[in-house]
Amino acid sequence: MREGSESLLFKEFSNMLENISQTKKRLEIQKILSDYFTRLKKESPQAIVSACYLCLGKFLPDHFNTELGVGETMLIKIISEFTNKSIKSLREEHRKTGDYGVIAAKYRANQLSMFEKKDLSIIQVHEGLKRIAKEAGNKSQISKNRIILSLVSNTEKNETKYIIRILEGKLKIGLALKTVLISLGITFQFDNSIEVIKYAYNCKPVFESLIPLLLNKDTKSLNNLGIEPGIPIKPMLAYPSKNITAAMKKIKGRFVCEYKYDGERAQIHKINDSYFIYSRNSENLTEKYPDLKEGLNLICNNKNNFIVDAEVVAFDLEAKKILPFQILTTRKRKNVSLNEIKITVCVFIFDLLFFEDSLIEKSLEERRSILYNNFKEIEGKFHFVTKKECTTADEIDSFFNKSIEENCEGIMIKNLVDNSEYTPSKRCYSWIKLKKDYLTGMADSFDLIVLGCYYGKGKRTGSFGGFLMGCYNDETEKYETVCKLGTGFDDETLINIYNKLKVLEKVKPKDVIFKEGNEPDLWIDPKVIWEIQAAGMSLSPVYTAGYTSLGNGLSLRFPRFIREREDKSISDSTLSSQVVEMYYNLQESDKEESSGEY
């Protein structure tokens, strides 16, 4: 490490994280991080890649689906080894603090400092994490233990705290991807830099590709950075609408209606002779669907690499009908062999994103033309989405009713020509969804996060009787409360939920905004997402969703559990801003209904 490269040190990086943890102001956080990136840019520009990953508690792009393989039990043993504290006492302290990083720093044994320490760089820590993840086999835990101890032995207290938190994948300072990308935009200033960087990353979410272009000031390549087979992108999403009239006001020009299938979103990638299936949050699902992989070589008429956007549904081959999503969830996710598959599936393809080259900037009509000219259907296995170009509300209503009869959730309405580009990782008004549930009062369901649990009474004694549900605010990077949920569960579901959630208990969190008197019996690590239906929304003095926009919080009226969404991450859940927007849309559509419109 050359003289004067203090910013490259993990010590400096940890101090920067500590400074961020001391403020709640977004602009201050962005300044602290962008100032740090600026120093790195001058002293060791290549280290920015490592810094970006470590800021997010990661070490590789999401689509690598690589885990460190360092569970809580292993982490406690390692902390016990370098603190000389018993495992029992560490567990007891963790119940109070909920933070192994703080505990490790507090009890860090003096003998770690008996030998001469070598300053760690952020690159060394980043590479160390990758080495830990690579260790596999019978003796992998011994090897992982050795690598971790070698890193920790060269740290001071503050560094110890953050290296342990990184091993847990939780920095606990409210630093999210959005802030990292904005801070990069501030560091590498050029015209519209923040939006260009966000778009480039959404097309190719790999810091190893993004940072060199920024360092070389290659804004042309950044603006033209397209998608690439083998690197999944976050999908484009639709806005919900409560009725046809409201939907038609949003859509401009020619449009097409499609069935909205009740299944699992899937991106299918072809690279030479290999095929990969990815979920909406970049999880590799290829081994979950060996029955699909078997037929993928038959759907395309030529040898071009491609990416298609599709929905996988459970399918009854004899009756030739779509089955409910709950049946699809019973399929194993890993180590699936063809001879043990009991639930058959069918893929409905609705978009083509890459064919020889990126197509996302072309109109939907152009993308569709290339799709239909080069791909073919396979009965009961691969089909094009059922679609119809409509021009009137009556036509849309008829198509909507037909979709419900054929076991779909509803329909999608999409711009066909104007403003019909595919925008990764963004919810756009060029796509509108109309679901059958809008007839019950709400335009859409909510994907909410379980924040806490209330113990049951009466026949629910010994289990959980209710749940505190919340949403994520991506501006403040905090969780906000939305409602207390207690209906929609059968007895078996409640038992499964109890067994799953009781191990996720955590201490009272600092990143949940809630009103006193609304505290659950136990708090839950916010990682479980449930789909919730409601009869309506109202302003609330009890809940905090959207309070920064409205002054008051928002709550759901008569919320009901629909299902767990294992295919969604926190970033895919219903955000606080979306809850507010749905409230305004509901107010507007109520006015339209009172005027007698569709």
Automatic annotation (TrEMBL):
Main location: nucleus
Domain ATP-dependent DNA ligase family profile: 338-473
Keywords: ATP-binding, DNA damage, DNA recombination, DNA repair, DNA replication, Ligase, Nucleotide-binding, Nucleus
PROSITE patterns assigned to the protein according to its UniProt record, in alphabetical order: DNA_LIGASE_A1 (PS00697), DNA_LIGASE_A2 (PS00333), DNA_LIGASE_A3 (PS50160)
One Gene Ontology term from the biological process aspect of the record: DNA biosynthetic process
Pfam families recorded: DNA_ligase_A_C (PF04679), DNA_ligase_A_M (PF01068), DNA_ligase_A_N (PF04675)
Catalytic activity from the UniProt record: ATP + (deoxyribonucleotide)n-3'-hydroxyl + 5'-phospho-(deoxyribonucleotide)m = (deoxyribonucleotide)n+m + AMP + diphosphate
Alphabetical list of PANTHER family matching this protein: ATP DEPENDENT DNA LIGASE DOMAIN-CONTAINING PROTEIN, DNA LIGASE 1/3 FAMILY MEMBER
Protein name: DNA ligase
Species of provenance: Anncaliia algerae PRA339
Source species taxonomy: Eukaryota, Fungi, Fungi incertae sedis, Microsporidia, Tubulinosematoidea
